[in-house]
Amino acid sequence: MKVLPIIILIFFLKGMAMAQDIVKAEYFIDDDAGFGQNVDIPIPSNLLGPNFELNFTIDLNNVNPGLHHLYIRVKDDQDFWSLYTYTTLFVVEDVPVPSIDALEYFFDADPGFGNGIQVNITGNETDNTIIFDANLDDLAPGTHFMYIRARSAEGEWSLLSSRLIQVLEDMEQVNIVRLEYFFEGNGFTSQTYSQPIQDPSPVVEFDFQANASELTNGETYTLSVWAIDDEERKSLVNTISFLYSEVVPIVLSVEKQNESCEGLGDGQLTANATGGEGTLLYSIDGTNFSANNVFPNLTSGTYTVTVKGDVPDYSVAEEATVEADHENPEVPNITELTGNDGSIILESTEAFTYQWFLNDQPISGASSRQYQPQESGEYQVSVANEGGCSALSEKHTVSIDVTAIYQQADTKLIIYPNPVVDELIIESKSGINLLGAEIELRTISGKLLLSGKAKTNVMKVDFSPYPKGMYQLIIITDQLVLQKKLLMN
């Protein structure tokens, strides 16, 4: 693509009258197509006025190589066109940019092609810019000429590019200990203020709040600032001009609510801000702002809450750390023990409270450190500490021959009548001791209706409160486990 960057100073004068605002500009090459019919030159809205400087690009793709005339003219807001201004162009054919396969430089005296200091390049370079560090170690302090040339992939060397450089003696390392600054504007010069550097070093970069107590709202000032090193030597002065606008400061405080347990994610930060201008917006990541000043569902960590109003480039931030009020207990282990009667007993690592699970479902009433499984499946135990924080064990698979146990138990107990009318009687035989046995009555779906321990070797269970249907009776002693289905008429 062939383009020509142009910078022009556009102005419009119409006789002795006041100059009007320029609203349109156009250009043509060689031949005029008529007012408003040539190539439009876009004018940004912030440049409208009787005169301004404008950068734009001329498209030369359809212009033949050779000598040409470029004409430019403008139109004002009263619909008057100016006289045109013109310049002469010489258009040449596109020349391919050669690939660069070598780059070298030298100082003062030419050592010959290929004998300069070689620059490491990544490959066949066609970019116009290659950045590298020049080695000045062997140069004496003083003025020198630096020369650079490149070699194309075809082995042709370019012309030399040169630059005058000044080599200075090595200076001792110094630390910047403070900044000093003052303001000037409209015949006013402030006192000189000092800003200490907390951690002195050769290079400092930090934000600080300048003392603006002497400045007047709405006035333009120039800030001059310089550095002072540990030998009380002064650096060069940097200056910047600005329009001083007083801002109502934002005062921010952050309330925190810790998460109750590690990783639970119930922590919260609440930002309380006053002052500022316009609507205050809040953010916890410095990027996404909203009017919501509450940040819930936080885990332990340090967060930065930022508040801003309608003043550009002005915000206030404060760090807050969310902690966990209680640590989580260690993940419990399940140990499989064997009872006196050969039954399986599961035991958890010691904890404050326990809850046993079978196939991911909580087992009602199973809240002791030990649990005697009554059927095959995958068992887990959830333990909690005194702070209420919990941890869940890995799954422990248990296989039980339930049929054999139940058949054996059924021969040692007498349970009647079945079907039940109003009352069920349970008696032991074959020397089985029912005293202290755990007895549960459940619906077929597993809902617990009755739970207790036997106080005698003959037990009576009142069925009168229950509707007709099927029920499960579960009896657990230190000698047997029984599960029996009952029908209520």
UniProtKB/TrEMBL annotation:
Domain Secretion system C-terminal sorting as annotated: residue spans: 415-486
Signal sequence coordinates: none
Any Pfam family the entry gives: Por_Secre_tail
NCBIfam families in alphabetical order: Por_Secre_tail
Protein known as: T9SS type A sorting domain-containing protein
Organism of origin: Splendidivirga corallicola
